[in-house]
Amino acid sequence: MLTFRNPVLDADWPDPDAIRVGDDYFLVASSFNRSPGLPVLHSTDLLRWTIASHAAAQLVPAEHYTRPRHGSGIWAPSIRHHDGVFYVVFPDPDHGIFVTTTRDPFGTWSPPRLLLPGRGLIDPCPLWDDDGATYLVHGWAASRSGQKNLLTLVEVDDALTRVVGRRETIVDGDLIDGCTTLEGPKLYKRDGVYWVFAPAGGVSTGWQSAFRARSPFGPYEHRVVMRQGDTPVNGPHQGAWVTTPGGEDWFLHFQDRGVFGRVVHLQPLTWGTDGWPLIGEPLADEPGCGQPVLEYRAPAAADRPGEVGPAAQAGPAAQAEPARSDPFDGPAPGPQWHFQANVPDGTAVADGGSLRLAVAPDDLGNLRDVAGVIGQQLPGYPCRVTTRVDLTGHDGVRAGLLVLGRTYAWVGLEARDGQVRVVSRRRAEDNLRVPEADLMEPVDLDLVAPAVDLGATSDAEGVITFAWRRGPEDAWTEVPVRFPAVQGHWIGAEVGLFAGPLGGLSPAEGARVSFGPVEVRDTRAN
């Protein structure tokens, strides 16, 4: 028997939703202010995942998101397949609920269209019913609407373009003892019964509830179907119920790991004789409720001959996450990268083993405000990230390797008046009146070609050790002050690359800085 270990995605993939179409699973996650947004992941066994596409080439309204708007943008989406079309329905809490579609989830998605305008509408999920009706359930964000802990159902047309019928609150969390922050609903139908799977209790401390009714508009009865129990998996909730081709039921959900963001776990889902689901393994002191498993029998798909091994094979199943390293050997950076906001086409261009990144005109000294910072999630496991930066031919420019959250730090080069030096700095507050502080004494370089290797090592707690060296034949010099990485606004910390002008200086028009291949190496003990 093959087994797997949680989390199956040990990085920030917030608010996952997933479906199966044939033998393929597709998972979509929140992306907030990041562009491109709505990463769509693909797997054939629920254990090995790659990035298939991004359902949002940029955030909309496009002009509104030309600057980083932390905490805004794309919140919890849903993904569904109906009549040969893939739908991703997603909310922007400041603008409303949008829909994008495709027939090829590995290709291009349609420009988003607005289905429900309004502030505070979040976490939508559609259901095409057997009788031809189509419904959309959603939650509410108090920060924009003044109300929360409510689930609302609205009847829409088959193509998800307009409202055509009733719109009612179907669950009021305030009427349920102990229920707070009810949100993230996913709508299903099973054997004539309507189900809403919804988390409550908050991102890092909550639980998973299920609601059922004989009518889509209720009345609904409820049960808590998964809690933390005596496991280390805090706040296990919000995700997706999927069924394998062989009839196994599974639930994908997140756990908030702070600096590492919301990582994704896979749990068995079973149906009791009373018709209620139980997620994970049963809790001894709460009948009908489960707690997360840390290690479990792998889904049947993982036993397929030719993929992982014959069904009789015992031991750990193969697990894989989307690639982190990037050799920059294609025409563009890999799909693991995103910007902090919408940027002009060609801001980052891969070119024969290097990345040529445009010097950001909006860098006024605070890298959290720079749209053109290109980043990816900081992995949830100890790792080492390395690259090379080259400032040949540049003056009045700074560039480097960055770890970004509500605070940030970086190591890299500055070129001023013909002099290049190695620096490492941090910003402890998101405030332009507080300048970046040095983590090391700057080192002047006397190089014909001003280029250095850069490194950032993250430990199990997300504490970063920066380092640099002149070239592969040289020893690494560590920055003496460590940097405890900090999560961003609703997201985990990111590792990224940046290039910007030095204060008061104007680099050449169209200037680009070259970075070498990025290697992200897992440093956990084998």
Q: Domain count, please report it.
A: 2
CA-atom Rg in angstroms: 24 Å
Strand content: 35-45%
CATH topology name of the largest domain:
Tachylectin-2, Chain A
CATH superfamily of the largest domain: Glycosyl hydrolase domain, family 43
Q: Total number of β-strand segments? A: 42
- Mean pLDDT equals 95
Total of helices: 1
Give the overall shape, derived from the CA principal axes.
globular
* Helix amount: under 10%
Estimated structural class: mainly beta
The CATH class of the largest domain is Mainly Beta
What are the low-pLDDT stretches, counting only 5+ consecutive residues below 50? 305-311
Please give the largest β-sheet.
9 strands, antiparallel
Quaternary organization: single chain
CATH architect. name of the largest domain: 5 Propeller
Termini separation comes to 22 Å
What's the SSE blueprint?
Blueprint: E1 2-5, E2 17-21, E3 24-28, E4 37-43, E5 50-56, E6 78-82, E7 85-92, E8 96-102, E9 113-117, E10 121-128, E11 134-140, H1 142-145, E12 150-156, E13 163-172, E14 186-190, E15 193-200, E16 207-213, E17 221-226, E18 237-243, E19 249-256, E20 262-271, E21 277-279, E22 281-282, E23 290-291, E24 295-297, E25 315-316, E26 338-339, E27 348-350, E28 355-358, E29 374-377, E30 383-390, E31 397-404, E32 408-416, E33 419-427, E34 437-438, E35 443-445, E36 451-458, E37 463-469, E38 477-478, E39 483-484, E40 494-501, E41 512-515, E42 519-522
